[in-house]
């Protein structure tokens, strides 16, 4: 009889321990999730005409955003090609999506021309190249990284490293998800179509 | 749908003939050499191709020269933790019996100092230098800005 009481006691303790452990591992995840769903990236950057463009302007639309630079021969053309393909394949639903290219090398890109670059891929892609501070602020609000790297072998003596994903912002300005570099246009299209 | 397929096949019909040409020296053969149309000459162009080493000795692509650019170089795009950087590559290893692909998001030739605008539908010559096999002249097809791979029947 005494043994049985001890047994029950042990089971209760084991149960409590399991609950406590569960709470411990679930809690940080729940926090992370609420943080992610509430974060709203923002930018205020000049377009090729020098006009300031802000996130608010696109309220009601999905925004598909890529950070890059026009002197980039590989990753940026590949990603803008995908962006363009997605826009073409969306058909009428394309009106609900604003594709945006934000330069992380804005001074050089303003000189080279940001529109000539984006227009070569798709007429709907909005190219933005603000000043350095505004660009840094936009990057921070999207929680992305970019850096200038000295490279004697590169054009102008430097190149840029940067977060290479595409970011999806919802109609209410919420960050929804990212599509990692190399995600096929068909997969992006499929995901977008479930949301539109 | 049918029209789209037709339009696409017409679009790719012209470049298809050449990007699929194979160039060979010794044990090394190169095919699917292509580049993207450029916007002016201020931004670097790109070079993608496939190298197959049919021999039993390891080789490596060590250099590029072309009349199309004053400073052609080998680079490799590296994506680490979602951040893309593009270090200079001294050479691209081509191990015995293997095929190495220079493609978007990996090894590529960066053509700095373009001498002319690269126009879709045109070709330009490039000389590839291999450690073992020596020099090989290859013709590169300039495809649309929007293309993501050489359009060959046998391409994956």
Structure commentary:
The complex is a heterodimer of chains A (196) and B (156). By secondary structure, chain A is of the alpha/beta class. Helices cover 45% and strands 22% of the residues of chain A. In chain A, β8 and β9 (175-179) form a beta hairpin. By secondary structure, chain B is mainly beta. Chain B has one domain: PCu(A)C copper chaperone (Immunoglobulin-like, Sandwich), CATH 2.60.40. In chain B, 12% of the residues lie in helices and 48% in strands. Classes of the chains: A alpha/beta (196), B mainly beta (156). At the A-B interface, α2 and β7 of A face β5, β7 and β10 of B. β7 (158-163) of chain A pairs antiparallel with β7 (83-85) of chain B.
Radius of gyration of chain B (CA) equals 16 Å
- Total helical segments of chain A: 6
Global outline of chain B = globular
Task: Classify the oligomer.
Answer: heterodimer
SSE-based structural type of chain A: alpha/beta
Q: What is the share of helical residues of chain A?
A: 40-55%
Helix segment tally of chain B: 1
The CA-CA distance between the termini of chain A, in Å, is 65 Å
Could you name the CATH class of the largest domain in chain A? Alpha Beta
Write the CATH fold name of the largest domain in chain A.
Glutaredoxin
Largest interface: A-B, 34 and 31 residues
Briefly note the structural class of the backbone of chain B.
mainly beta
Give the CATH level 1 class of chain B: Mainly Beta
Residues in β-strands, percent of chain A: 15-25%
> Which value, in Å, is the CA radius of gyration of chain A?
23 Å
* Total of domains of chain B: 1
Beta-strand percentage of chain B? over 45%
Distance between the termini of chain B: 23 Å
Main-sheet strand order of chain A equals 5-4-3-8-9
Q: What's the mean pLDDT score of chain B? A: 89
